[in-house]
Design a protein that fits this description.
By secondary structure, the protein is mainly α. The chain folds into two domains: about 5-255, Rhopdopsin 7-helix transmembrane proteins (Up-down Bundle); about 260-310, no CATH class. The chain is built from nine helices and four strands; from the N terminus they run H-H-H-H-H-H-H-H-H-E-E-E-E. Strand 2 and strand 3 (about 285-290) form a beta hairpin. Residues about 250-328 have low confidence and may be disordered. Belongs to the SAT4 family. It is a multi-pass membrane protein.
Length: about 325
């Protein structure tokens, strides 16, 4: 077996194993949400990423094999499928991650800002999608090769680096407000930070893909694309799966739901008492309770059994459509 054939065989194996693992993880995440009746738009985009990844895998398997039985048009179409479905998986995963953050945020100006930023994600995806065509269609010769592959070059790599780094910084920074505004225990804070900080891994992989475009192209570029898509989709599922297993672990250790501190804000003549409760990485609950005299805590609606140290042990779930409870 020649070196080229060995590389193609390695790529075919990689393009099956890693994407299949990412698909299984995503289906498990969707099963969790469906079982808990909490499917929402972040799950829709995760499922869209799975469908695009299946098409990406198919195009990869067909493109990197003997193409003598395909027409020239088919080989060119397979390359464009590889390029565009790579973007589709990557950006569907990013949008899913960001919508998970929006899901955790109560209605108000900050949530509105996040929704607008999510629209910017779609604009960035559209620009990169179009860039492949206007770069490749201006290059002569590549369509006549046995395995057509356009040289995307420096401009595409720079555009990918800028958009990936900018959006990943937003994905990492956006949930920090949730951590600062809500009183949580130290293990819970570490868990939330770890979950959303996993986006850094996706950023590193995207930088590797951009480097492969600039320096190598061909096989190395295709391998980096497979790794980036697989890792991006897995990162999109981390928040749901970690929360699921953390809840199971907490129930197993305490034989009951995780205790969450109840925070009392000093009342004033113009503002009522405010209580903020954080459940897990699926829902953030914020409710206001008004007491004219600022002292009658016994009138507060019961959220579950309380302990002498002022903690609540039973918490409500999100409503059916996945929207957070409460108001700003």
């Amino acid at each position: 077996m020649s070196t080229m054939e060995a590389q193609f065989e390695e790529l075919r194996v990689l393009s099956l194993v890693l994407p299949l693992f990412a698909i299984v993880v995503t289906l498990f995440r969707l099963a969790i949400r469906a079982w808990r009746r909490q499917l929402w738009w972040d799950d829709f985009w995760a499922m869209a990423a799975v469908l695009c990844l299946i098409l990406f895998m198919t195009a990869m398997q067909l493109h990197f094999r003997d193409g003598s039985s395909y027409s020239l048009t088919t080989r060119i179409a397979l390359y464009y499928m590889l390029s565009e479905f790579f973007y589709a998986v990557n950006w569907c995963s990013k949008i899913s991650i960001f919508l998970t953050t929006i899901r955790l945020t109560v209605r108000g100006p900050y949530r509105t800002l996040l929704v607008r930023l999510a629209c910017c994600f779609g604009v960035a995806w559209a620009i990169l999608f179009a860039q492949v065509f206007w770069v490749c269609e201006t290059q002569p010769g590549w369509k006549d090769t046995p395995q057509p592959q356009c040289n995307l070059g420096r401009n595409v790599a720079i555009a990918q680096v800028i958009t990936d780094v900018a959006t990943d910084v937003i994905l990492i920074a956006a949930p920090l407000k949730l951590i600062w505004r809500v009183k949580v225990t130290r293990p819970q804070r570490i868990r939330i930070t770890m979950v959303f900080g996993s986006t850094i891994i996706a950023t590193i992989v995207s930088l590797y893909h951009a480097y492969a475009i600039l320096r190598f192209g061909g096989f190395e570029e295709a391998r980096a694309a497979v790794i980036q898509d697989g890792v991006s989709l897995i990162v999109a599922d981390v928040s749901v799966i970690v929360a699921f297993f953390a809840r199971i672990s907490s129930v197993g250790e305490s034989h009951g739901p995780v205790a969450v501190e109840l925070v009392r804000v000093k009342p004033s003549s113009k503002s009522p008492d405010s209580f903020a409760v954080n459940v897990d990485t699926d829902t953030t609950i914020s409710r206001d309770y008004s007491h004219p005299d600022g002292s009658d805590l016994d009138k507060m609606p019961s959220l579950g059994s309380s302990s002498p140290n002022g903690k609540v042990s039973a918490l409500p779930e999100a409503d059916g459509d996945g929207e957070p409870f409460g108001k700003v």
